[in-house]
Every structure is written in structure tokens, then in C-alpha cells.
Amino acid sequence: MLRKLWAIAWFSAVEVLGHPATLLLTLASAIGTLLLPLFQFQRFSEDGRLARDCGLSTALLFGTLLAIGGAGRLHRALRDGTSAIALVKPLSRGLWFCGNALGTALALGVYLLTQGAATLLAEAYSPRYHAGGSYADVGAIFLAVGVAVGALVLAALNNRVRNGRFALSGSLLLPVALWVLVPFAPAVHWGDLTALVAVAMLLAQATALALALGVRCPPGLTAGVTLAALAVTLAYLGGAAYLPLEPLAGGGAVPARTLLLLAPQACFVTAFLLWCSMGLLDTKETL
Amino acid sequence: MSEPLVLDGVRKTFRDFWGRPTVEAVKGLSFTVGAGEVFGLLGPNGSGKSTTIKMLLGLLRRDGGDIRVFGEPPTSKRAHAAVGYLPEITYLHPFLTPRETLRYYGRLFGLGGKTLHDRVEDLLRLAGVDHVADRRVGTFSKGMTRRVGLAQALLNAPQLLVLDEPTSGLDPIGTREVKDLILGLKARGIAVLMSSHLLPDVQDCCDRILILDRGECRAQGRIRDLKESLEAFFLETVDRTERVSPLEAAGGLPWLGGTQA
Questions:
Q1: Is B257 within the bounds of a domain?
Q2: Within a 10 A sphere around the Cβ of B123, how many other Cβ atoms?
Q3: CATH of the domain at B72
Q4: Mean pLDDT across A63-78
Q5: What are phi and psi of B43, to 5 degrees?
Q6: Mean pLDDT for chain B?
Q7: Which residues, in sequence order, are bridge partners of residue A134?
């Protein structure tokens, strides 16, 4: 059963990561974050704060868009009949669905790795006071952007020489390329990664909601409801706890206690939504 | 040993969102398919063939009657493990190559290692797509996609093969190869259920046929017992209307035609 689950998950992750829209979203997110320090025209209370806050917020928003894309993929498979060929194999609908959900989660994980690296680098290269004034490390920023472009060039070479999938290679090479730079960046704020964990927990819930809706609803409705639910959660239902920007001030990190308190809620809500999805799929009349 | 496929009084009515019946797609259908037999399911468009096939595969719930696949309910994993299915429209993932497609579906059957590798290579050769095994399916013609679809239906060495329009989209050589394949599988004791509009193909391959019309069985029996051609028998069985040209039936359509000399 695990082998089948992994086969479906791997295939789903490859399909999501290999979609050109995924690469475009990831590129826009990462390069936009990296270039942010160049356009910072006022100093905030702390060096690098704008890049950090924007990077983490972008991770949440673009991650949600990717999750919606994954749900749209699931909906299309059920609508077009691609799922039928898989579902007449000896596996349950629940296993098939869980494999798809796991695959979407894997793809999101890859995206978060990319955006996490971009956030750390953007914060490290943000304007800081030096002897001559406040300025961003322009050379390092362009190097980071160049490294990202280099990853795409490698992906293109892979496509040219080995007929590899450009979008898939690009999506996988981008995080590798950016993380290679992170250890060499000055004053990396590793505490950001604790915030990224919290964002990932909120994304897991948004993904589960999108997938649940995707079983029955068209992509437009799924997108609208998921984004609306995310907005309402952040504004009124305590979702702000998952975007802990204040603890990061002055080089801090999200306390482990906070993450341990958020984790059970995130796990419960995610599991509940996935369980609802499997019920919706089981009762779906036609495949 | 149970019969590969038994349908007994199967019914299906489609309903709208409010639960009101809209279409009675299948009305008390009964037939069996034995081992080593090729059974043809025929009928005009909308007669209930695809609905019947989806019910026996567990993709659609029936409203009444019983379906047994090797003695098991159609949704059981044991039934699925023994069945191969080629849908009418072969929706394969366009970003995968034929080799990757077969490997993926092979893993869903629990196959792996050398067994899976050998079987995939054998089926690529059988389907005649070994020379394009590493090209994306999205770049294929309909006929080539169909060949890959047929290959995936054979991955698990099925004891019951369900083929929905198996020769649709194939060139004459491909059609002959598929018919030869069906007859070869029959000789090995594999049961085949095929649905087709192409009556010559049905006449060449099938032992028994069932003609479905508006969800009901109109005729069922052995091909060799027919006193006339299958086409004549089919038209006689389902065509109740007086033969009128469609143009006349639609009021002549005077605007439709070539320029007068």
C-alpha cells in the first residue's frame, strides 16, 4: 500500500512541479523577494525587516495559489476521466486521494524551500548602515538573481541534451541554487525558518481545504473560497498566530512553544479536511 | 471457478442535484461473459453501453441488480486486480512518456523491479510504440495514444479485459493488430468484453453479442447463429423509424448545397 501511495504522490508532485505555471509562480515569488531590497526607499525599525516580512507573506500567498493549482489538477483528473484509469486499479479512492494530497504537499515543500532561501538572502542583502551610509548589497543581489537564472539555464540544457522536462528541472534546481548561496550570505537570520514552519502549517490547512473543494467544485469556486477562508482566518479566527512576524524582531525566532501549540491544531484541521475530502470522493457518483 | 463477469438485473437511473430521476440509463440488464470468450456490447449512441461498463468497473454505482467480477463485487481490489480496462477516450497524462505511463500504472498494480521493467518493455513492443517510448504522450496522435492505452490495460495480465471502442482512431494496420491481439488473448483463456460501433470488427472478433437500446437488451446470442449480416441484424433490431434522409427530416435546408452551374 505504501508503495502505491508513494507512486501516486511522486507522480502528482512531478505533475504539479512540472507545470509551467508552478515555475512561473516560483520564479516571480523568489526573484521578486530577492529584488525587494533594491526598491526599499525608507528604513524600517530594523534592517531587513521589509524583505523578511514580505518574503514570508509571499510564501503564504503564492503557496496558497500553488495549492489551488494542485486542487485544480485534481478536479480536472476527476472531470476528464484521467482518474478513471487509475481508479480501476486495485487501490481505494481514499489511497488515490491521499497520494494526490501528499504529492501536492511535496510540491509545496519544494516551493517553500525556494522561497525560504530567497527570504533569507533578501534579508541578508537588505540596506544596512555602513560607514558611507545605508545601502543594499547590490552585487550580492544580482549574483543571487544570476544564480536563479543559472538554474534555469541548467534546466534548459537538461531539456536540450537529455530531453528532460524544463519546468520540472527548473522547479527542482532553483532551491538548490539559492541554498548554495545562503551559507555565504552575511548575517543570515536563521530564525526566519521557524516562521516558515508556522507558515507551512497554515498552508497545509489551506491546501487541505482547496483539495476538499477541488473534489466537487470547479477551479474558480475553489480558488475564491480558499482565498476567502484564508483571509477570514487571518483577520478574525486567530490565523495571525501562523504569521508570527513580531518574535522575529532583532534577530529573534518563533519560540518552540508557539510552534508546539500550533502544530496539533494544524494537524487536526488538515486531517479533518482531508477526511471530508475522502468522503466527498467516495460519494461522488461518476468518475 | 466463478465466471469472469455476471450481470443480473442491473439498473441505473441518473438523477439531478435534487434527486429527481432524469435518465433511466440501464433497465434490468443481464448477461454473463465466460473465460476465453469475446463478448460484444453493441448499441446506438446513448443506449447505455458506457454506463454498463462503468458500473461493472465500480466507477459508477448501480441502483439495482447484481454485478460479480470473478465472484467479487466490482469495487473490490481482487476484482480490479484481475481486470484490464481501455476507456473509450484514452485520457493519459500528456507530460509522461509511454514508458513512464506504463511504469506508473504498473506500480499501482503493485508491480516493481525486473518484473515491471520486462513487462513494460514487452508491452511497448506489443503496442508498437517502442520507437517512441521516451516521447511525451501529449505529442502523440489519437491512434498512438490508443495503443499506449491498450498497453496499460494489459499490464496486470488481466483475466477479464474490458475494451470500450478498442479500434477507435487506429489505422487499418493497427485495427488488424488489435483484432489479432483480441483473438490471441481469447485463445489463452482470457475473457474479453468489447463495446464497439464498428460492426465488421465485432463480427470478426466476438463469439456472442448483446444489442442494447435505451438501456434494455434487444437481442442476445451467438454471432454464428445469425442468418444475416450483423449490420442488417443490428439495424433491424434498433432502427424503428421509417428510413428518411436527415436533410428531408430537417426541412430540406435549402441554404446547404453547392453552387448551381
A1: no
A2: 23
A3: 3.40.50.300
A4: 91
A5: 165, 160
A6: 87
A7: A129
Residue B12 touches partner A, C-beta closer than 8 Å: no
Rounded to two decimals, what is the model's pTM? 0.86
B122-131 contacts, C-beta under 8 A, 24 or more apart: B123/B151, B123/B152, B123/B154, B123/B155, B124/B98, B124/B99, B124/B151, B126/B151, B126/B154, B126/B181, B127/B98, B127/B151, B128/B174, B128/B177, B129/B98
Give the chain B residue nearest A4 (alpha carbons): B108
How far does the CA of residue A76 sit from the closest CA of chain B (Å)? 11
Nearest residue in chain A measured CA to CA from B100: A11
Range of the domain at B19: 5-87+159-239
Residue B79 lies in a domain: yes
Nearest Cα neighbor of B10 from B32, B27, B33, B34 is: B27
Of A15, A90, A286, the CB nearest to B95: A15
Which residue is closest to B77 within chain A, CA to CA?
Answer: A90
Measured CB to CB, residues of chain A less than 8 Å from chain B are: 3-4, 7-8, 11, 14-15, 18, 80-82, 84-92, 163, 165, 285-287
Average pLDDT, chain A: 88
Greatest CA separation found in chain B? Answer: 71
Q: Are A94 and A281 in contact (CB under 8 A)?
A: yes
- Mutate which of B56, B59, B72, B100 to disrupt the A interface (most A C-beta within 10 Å)? B59
- Tell me, yes or no, whether B151 lies in a domain: no
Terminal Cα-to-Cα distance of chain B (whole angstroms)? 71
CB A167 within 8 A of CB A22: yes
The pLDDT of residue B258: 65
| pLDDT at residue B254, as a whole number | 76
State the pLDDT at residue A242.
76
Q: Report helix angle A192-216 to A219-236, nearest 10.
A: 140
Closest CA to A71 of A177, A206, A202: A206
CB-CB contact of A90 with B82 (8 Å): no
Distance, C-alpha B210 to centroid of its chain: 13
Q: Do B80 and A7 touch (CB under 8 A)?
A: no
Query: Taking 60 as the threshold, does the pLDDT of residue A287 lie above it?
Result: no
Q: How many domains does one find in chain B?
A: 1
Nearest to B59 among A8, A11, A87 (CB): A87
Sign of CA dihedral B146, B152, B155, B159: negative
Q: Is residue B228 domain-resident?
A: yes
Average pLDDT over residues A188-195: 88
Residue A31 to residue B253: CA distance in whole angstroms? 61
